[in-house]
Every structure is written in C-alpha cells, then in structure tokens.
Amino acid sequence: MSLQNTRILFVKRPSGLFDPNETFKIVKEPVPSQNDLSNGQILVKNYYLSLDPAMRGIMNDVRSYTPPLAINELMRGNTVGEVVISKNSKFKVGDKVEGLLGWQKYAVSDGKDVAKIVPPPKASLRDYLGLFGITGLTAYFGLLDGKVKVGETVVVSGAAGATGSVTGQIAKLKGARVIGIAGTPEKCAWLVNELGFDVALNYRDPDFSKQLTKATPNYIDVYFDNVGGDILNLCLKRLAKYARIVLCGAISQYNEKLQKGPSNYVALIAQSGRMEGFIVYNYKDRFQEAISDLSKWLQQGKLKRRDYVVEGLENAPQALLRLFKGENTGKMLIKIADEDENVKSKL
Amino acid sequence: MSLQNTRILFVKRPSGLFDPNETFKIVKEPVPSQNDLSNGQILVKNYYLSLDPAMRGIMNDVRSYTPPLAINELMRGNTVGEVVISKNSKFKVGDKVEGLLGWQKYAVSDGKDVAKIVPPPKASLRDYLGLFGITGLTAYFGLLDGKVKVGETVVVSGAAGATGSVTGQIAKLKGARVIGIAGTPEKCAWLVNELGFDVALNYRDPDFSKQLTKATPNYIDVYFDNVGGDILNLCLKRLAKYARIVLCGAISQYNEKLQKGPSNYVALIAQSGRMEGFIVYNYKDRFQEAISDLSKWLQQGKLKRRDYVVEGLENAPQALLRLFKGENTGKMLIKIADEDENVKSKL
Lengths: 347, 347
What we know:
Organism (chains A, B): Dentiscutata erythropus
Radius of gyration of chain A: 21 Å
Keywords (chains A, B): Oxidoreductase
InterPro entries (chains A, B): ADH-like_C, ADH_N_2, ER, GroES-like_sf, MDR_fam, NAD(P)-bd_dom_sf
CATH superfamily of the largest domain in chain A: Medium-chain alcohol dehydrogenases, catalytic domain
Mean pLDDT of chain A: 95
CATH class of the largest domain in chain A: Alpha Beta
Number of strands of chain A: 16
Protein name (chains A, B): 25591_t:CDS:1
GO molecular function, one term (chains A, B): oxidoreductase activity, acting on the CH-CH group of donors, NAD or NADP as acceptor
Largest interface: A-B, 36 and 36 residues
Oligomer: homodimer
C-alpha cells in the first residue's frame, strides 16, 4: 500500500470574503516514488506551511507582482521540510529546505527556488517561514525603505502579526519611538511588555482616534501599514512633514468587495509625504544579509518572535480565514508533520 | 481726494463648494501715502493676480504646509506689480516685483518675500505668475521628483491647466511619451496640436477609461496628478512596476465635503509604486536654476504657455470659482491694472 499525499487545490475564485470550503478542495493521491521522479528532481516532506495575508491577493484575477492562481492549481504557499528522495546532485536526503512548495504534504521540486537551510543557534526550521522568511524580511527591508532615523516616531499597524511584531522591534533597534496598533488588549500587552514597543493601541477601543492623536504629539514620521482601511486613513491625518508610509499590506481590505480608499491621502501633499508600495521580492539579492542581521539580533536577545501553530494541513483553509480575523499573535503556521519523525524509514 | 485702494478679504470659512459672494468681502480704503509708510516699507501697485487651486485649501482650518486663512484676513495671492513708493534701499520706484502681496490693488510690503523681476526676451511680467511662478516651478520640480526617464510613459491630469500644460511639455523635453487628460475637445486639441503631447484624452468622454487603457499599452511610469478623485483612481489601475505618482493637487476634491479616497491605492503595493506629495516651496533655494531653464526653453521655442486673463480685481471671487469648473486653458490671471499706465503721475 503506497503512502498517501494530501494536496489542497484552489478550485473557485472568491468574490469578497472567501469561503474556505468552496475555495479549496482537499485531494489525496499516492506520494510519488523513486521511480516517479525525473533526473534533477527531489521529493520534499513538508513540516510547516506559512499562512500569509497575500494568499488572498493571488486568488483575484488581477495584474500583480505575481500571477494570480489558476483554477485547480495547487494552492501556493511557502513551506519548510526535508528532502526524502533526491535525484538532484545539489540536494541529499536529509537536507532541510525552504521553498514555495505549496499546500501539500509531499512536494516534487526541480530544486529551483528551494533553498537548503541550517538554522543558527536559538533558531528553528520554522523561523525560515517567520523571522527569516517572507514576513521577517518584509519587516527588515520595508523599514529600510522607510528610512527610519533615531528619535523619529514610527507607527506600525497589524503590530502583533508576523511582520508587524518584527517591524516594531527593528524600529526600536534603530532608535525610534514605536507605537503599535493591534486588535486585543492581550496583543497590546505583549507588544509593550515583551517586545518593548513604547505604546500599543487597540484599534477596537471607541476612543482609538483620540488615543492615536495623544500618542503622536510630534506626529508620525514613518507609518508601516499592514492593514489599510480606516487605520491608514487616521494615520494620514497625523503625518509629520516628509513622512513616509510603507504600504506593506491592506489586510482589512482584501476580503472586501468594495475597497475603501484613504480619503485623507491629500495630507500627503500638505506634508510632502510619501506612500510607497513594498514587495520584499525586490530585495531578493540581499536576503542573506538580512537573515544574518536578524539571526544576530535573535541570538543577542534583541529580537523576539512568536509562532501561532495550527495542527494539520487539512485545517489550513479554515486557519487562513482565522488569519484575516486577526486570531493569531505572531506568525501563523500550519504544522503538517513532526520534524523529528524518521522520514526515511517511511518511504 | 485720495486714491482708492480695493482689497478683498476672506470673511467666511466655506464648507464644500465655496460661495464667492459669501466667502469674500470687497473693501475700499485710501491708498497709503508716502507719510503712511514706515522706513523699510514699499508700496506696490499690482498689475496681475494669480489664481490657484491651492487658494481653496487655505480656506480650511486644517494643518498644512502653510497656515489657514484667518477670518477677515486679506485674501492671499501672488501678484506682479511695480514699486510706486519706496522707503527701502533695496527697491526703487519703477522696480517690477513679484510677491505674495494679496488680493489688492495696492500693497504695502516690508520687501521680504518680494522679488525684483526683469523678464528675459519673449517673456512678460505675468510669466512670473505662470511659467516662472508657482505653477511653472511646480511642473519643473514635480517632474524632477517623478524622475522621468527617456521612453517612459507620463500621464498628466489637469493637463490644460497652468501646471499641467508646462509639465507635459517638460516631460516631452525629457524624452517621455506624454498623455494629457483634460475636460474639453478644444483643450485636448491644444495639447496635441500646439504643445506636442502625444495623446490627449477628454475625461468627460463616456469611454474615457477604455481610452486610457488603450493609450497606455506599457502602463504608466509617472502620473502627475493635479485632480485626484476618479482619474487618480483609474490611473492607479494602470501603473507600471516602480511607477511614481507625483501628487501635486486634487482640484476635483477641494470643494467636496466628503473627499474620495483612491480605492485602487493597493495597486501601489502590487507594482512597488510610489505616491508622493509635492510642495514647490521645498525647492525654494533652486528656483533661480529652474527659471533659467524655463526661460531658455521659452526662448528656444520649446515651451509654450497660454494665459487666461480675467479683467478686474472685483471679479476675482467669481473667477476663482470658474477655475474650479475648469473654464481656463492655461494660467488663470486677474488683470488688476494696465502695465503701461504711468503710475507715478497718479500718486
């Protein structure tokens, strides 16, 4: 009896809020064997899958930095795993790897866009989906783009998420005064007490707008926006001269049929401000430099991160919906299989 | 009998579309005489007043790059005129000057923020309100900010206005393909036939959106926005990778009680685009350099401009409203007095 693979396909393009049951289809098929692989290919057993807000974006049939998902395409996603069969001289069985291997337990790859990873001290495989992955690198390069200077005021929305929590900490390392915006008192407490943010505000508080004004007496020099919508609009009203808005995401808008534009954008003229879209892939040739810095800060205890792990690949569709509801603190991951399993004996 | 001065005061802060009769009050008072002036002061007879969209912005009591108008304040505006009395050693009677001297026939000034002007060949005094004034300098530096490269596609809205018409011509001089957006067939014809724009589109055409798509097969590298609103939103959908939006104005929104935000702003993320507010005063120390270039291009016949002159200071309130209706082609000016009048004999 052959080992079963689980793969999750994107089967229906949603409009507005996606329905996990309609959007995805879980299929079972045999895991490819040694004989099924061509020369140059590897078989990877995935341990963790990253869930990201951008996964909603690729469901739409619009022009973007990456092509939209095709119907019946394997759902895209970054994973970490281990090579269990190799017909590629660059990889050997047992190598730990990271790559865009999709929502599946086992993945066949030609080895391109798959990177071997060796976690440094205090780090784990799954950090390559979080701190050293797209979300951590986004925080690193996005903040660089924001050109934060010592003493400036930085506001981060989605601050308790994977990117926001790292962004705020790096801004502190750069000498800024950092205000985080999150959606629960627990998240706010984590930001201030554990991560060292100067202030954390709960946008669900009725007087949030007043709190934001009070927390930014010198206005906002850098606003790192993960959420869009009303929070972006409020922050626009508080811009300092020459303020920079790093547009990283707009999680509040991705599932809206009618997206909201920031009516206060004219403040960009009044304050000679800049609002700039940010895609981490533009910095691909500098990822190693960033990982080296992030790794150093992690070892020095200057950077903390938290994972929010959901067990079981089958639960990924529902978990993705929970990501948009803001249930996670830190990086949301799907645990597909135990790392310590002796994978070789199973094949 | 003393000579009468006419001054127009800002007397009521409007909400939404301003009413010229309610917003302003015309007052008559004696022109200050030699004895009324203190040491260091000059008296200027104004010939032309510049009308600018930004005049609506300063009516609002909001934080901006310049303080809002106070109630009963002389309405602000740039003028060109001639010194008729001088108690300031830097100015002599007969000097032609430009400055923020307000909506009045005669202005007393301490000489600060007033510049002596000597029009180069082919230029006139009133070019210091248009081509060499705030609107021309805005085109020059705004386009610089947009970092236009040879062969790129530049779209300019409000293209038949004072700033837009100069912007498009400079973009052509920089080797770009230039598409102008204006509001009448006559304006569009002027842009293409007289000013050398590659394409001009009338945003009032029912299929304007389709025309814009057709006119931008390689998408938009630089969008110079003078209007905001729906046109900004449409252009966001056509951004090329690394596109730059120079936010210069939002004339379509200034008189709206509820301003519209550009719901397609998320395209800035998808295309790593930048939207940056632009204030010409940030470049004050480089104005001379710009005027020298603009003057050279004018003399070489590479730059054309048109003035839309309304006679009589008393008509300025109504004319300002017409500016927002888009009645002007080129620079809107109020003619306050004839230049060739022998002013000295009158005092």
